[in-house]
Design a protein that fits this description.
This protein is an alpha+beta fold and 291 residues long. It contains eight helices and ten strands. The protein has two domains: 138 residues, MutM-like, N-terminal (N-terminal domain of MutM-like DNA repair proteins), CATH 3.20.190; 124 residues, Orthogonal Bundle (Helicase, Ruva Protein, domain 3), CATH 1.10.8.50. It is 27% helix and 21% strand. The strands form three sheets. The protein has a four-stranded antiparallel β-sheet, with no helix packed on it.
Length: 291
């Protein structure tokens, strides 16, 4: 799932490649992806792209005051295309959800470039909104503070009184915006804290470590992503991971085997030596270990 660093890097990529170009056509291939009807998707045609930004894990393309907002969900991605086909895609065929055609802007050639929004797999969650104000998107309206904008005192206040496991708290977008499954594993590993630790039970030292890891992991990933083409960002993300998606491999810090806890539709990875005093966590959501 694209998280804060990838979405921020995609916004930067679009600021470089799309801003100043005119939207000439939009091809909707997955009807279920569009979540709004007023303004219609077609209202973007003929307008200039004037900006690109991020709200949590939402990508926001400013099109002359209207906003094309995208949530890439678990398996969505943006693919930049040099020279798009003129024939419209067949709806419902393959991973394509939306194709955006852009004309050359000032100082650029006139070749029609653009981008595709795609989603792999059968479980479809990619969402597209056309709104006059990003706050009209329900997911944006519910976002908590951005993960990179909190100081240690603000983070402590945010976690105080939340009797929930730290892993789930970090990925709750209404609490903290931008962190998902992968980077929450990485942050907790860097902070040397159990994913099952209760958010309101952190010691002062653990809070300091968590805040430092939050900033270190996200800014480090963002530094690696910025300047990459959209096509290479996923690989760059995987290359920088220490524990997430590395079950059975040695921990790069201590050499212990990276372990996994599986849930119904997701999983987490951690290092017992670094995070839980060497004790493996029970492979069930309501584990009572190491709270």
């Amino acid at each position: 799932m694209p998280e804060l660093p990838e979405v921020e890097a995609l916004a930067a990529f679009l600021r470089e490649h799309a801003v100043g170009r005119t939207v000439t056509r939009l091809d909707l291939a997955a009807v279920q992806a569009i979540k709004t009807f007023d303004p219609p998707l077609s209202s973007l045609a003929g307008l200039e792209v004037t900006g690109a930004t991020r709200h949590g894990k939402f990508l926001d393309l400013d099109v002359s005051g209207l906003h094309l907002v995208v949530h890439l969900a678990r398996a969505g991605w943006l693919h930049w295309r040099e020279g798009l086909p003129t024939a419209p895609p067949k709806p419902g065929k393959g991973p394509l959800a939306l194709r955006v055609h852009l004309a050359g802007g000032p100082g650029r050639d006139e070749e029609a470039n653009g981008f595709d929004l795609t989603e792999q797999g059968t479980r479809k969650g990619l969402a597209v909104y056309v709104v006059r104000n990003p706050a009209e998107v329900p997911g944006i309206a519910r976002l908590g503070p951005d993960a990179l904008e909190l100081d240690v005192e603000q983070l402590g206040a945010l976690l105080a009184g939340r009797h929930t496991q730290l892993k789930g708290t970090l990925t709750d977008q209404t609490v903290l915006a931008g962190v998902g499954n992968a980077y929450s594993d990485e942050i907790l590993h860097a902070a040397r804290i159990s994913p099952f630790k209760m958010a309101d039970k952190l010691t002062d030292d653990e809070l300091l470590r968590l805040h430092a890891a939050l900033r270190e992991v996200l800014t480090g990933a963002l530094d690696r992503q910025l300047g990459q083409r959209a096509a290479t960002m996923k690989g760059e993300k995987r290359a920088g991971l220490q524990v997430h998606a590395r079950t059975g491999l040695p921990c790069p810090v201590c050499g212990d085997t990276v372990r996994e806890v599986s849930f119904a539709d997701t999983s987490l990875q951690y290092c017992a030596t670094c995070q839980t005093g060497g004790k493996p966590l029970a492979d069930r959501r309501m584990s009572k270990l190491l709270r």
